[in-house]
Amino acid sequence: MHPPRSSLLAALCISLVGLYSCQREEDLAAPSSPAWNGPTPYQLVFPAWATSPMHDLIIPADNPLTVEGIALGRKLFYEKALSNDYSMSCASCHQQEFAFTDPRTVSVGTDGSLGRRNSMAVVNPAWDHQFFWDGRAPTLEMQAFGPVANMVEMRNTWPEVESRLAAHPEYPLLFEHAFGSPGVDSMRVVKAIAQFERTFISFNSRFDRYEYGGETTALTAQEITGRDLYFGAAHCNDCHAAPFFSDIVLSSIGTDGGSALDHGQEEVTGLHTDAFKFKTNTLRNIGVTAPYMHDGRFATLAAVVDFYMDSIDANSPNISQHMMPYFNGGVELDVAQRAALVAFLNALTDEEFLNNPALSDPN
Known about the structure:
The protein starts with a helix and ends in a 9-residue tail after the last helix. It is mostly helical. It has 13 helices and 2 strands, in the order αααααααααβαβααα. A two-stranded antiparallel sheet has the order 1-2. The protein is globular and about 60 Å long. It has helices at 5-29, 67-77, 90-93, 140-149, 158-166, 171-179, 186-197, 206-211, 221-230, 266-269, 301-310, 335-346, 351-354, and strands at 250-251, 278-279. The chain folds into 2 domains: 67-202, Cytochrome Bc1 Complex, Chain D, domain 2 (Orthogonal Bundle), CATH 1.10.760; 206-352, Cytochrome c-like domain (Cytochrome Bc1 Complex, Chain D, domain 2), CATH 1.10.760.10.
């Protein structure tokens, strides 16, 4: 005697549910292998010479690097759902071909609002501890919080971002794999983005191959002349010290606040002694990050060099002691020497970094 049709249907449904449940458990348990035991630890790879007393590698204990976390962060870095109208991502203002900065003087928000400062390059941030021109964020995680809710940038809210990502067909599982448990929230978003950004490692310029790799033909004669000036008479290395080409300090270098009267770090601390202090940005890949300074006032590296040689205001408030060599003609470079210095700065470009497929849009 055959079982009733309804019993057969019920049994089939139970079987299908069981099959789906088993498949779902396999998916959750195995993003990359059948025996997945949680996020896979990831170790940054960089040259042994890439060390400095001023630069410690900073990997927060509560946000260790993992393969899955970096992959999620990469997807989120290029995710336009972070902006209110789905038109902008982090990469909109931090473009890889320009060393993760914006070639515009200032970036433009989703409603056409103009930013106030030039977008900063993101190069070797795993060794950094002050972010933004005014140093207001001490970690990459805290830096990533700002743009989403900024009303001249992405103009969104974090609850809205969380809702969008939680409803997405892919993100919930990606978050679970990245952090070892279910849940989509703003802290996990910024942690993942920070993990990805810590892989932005750039130590393979022609200067590096010449200076540290023993490749004597990596620099031209003009660039070698510029190198000698950089580390000698031009005093560039005083603040932009190799191998990171930044001292991660906020300084007043003899500029005013610009047309918008930007007071720099003073606007964060409220201290007049911090007026017109801005972060010493890295010079790695500086040849592709124009325009220059916090407000993008200089279109070329030649104009920047001319400023240091000719136009520093010795009476500028809180001016750094590092600027003293430039006062009263203390550093005088002729036309050929200035051109050599610019040529050397262009030799700090790392083509491998600018074209690294692991840092590009995964979509």
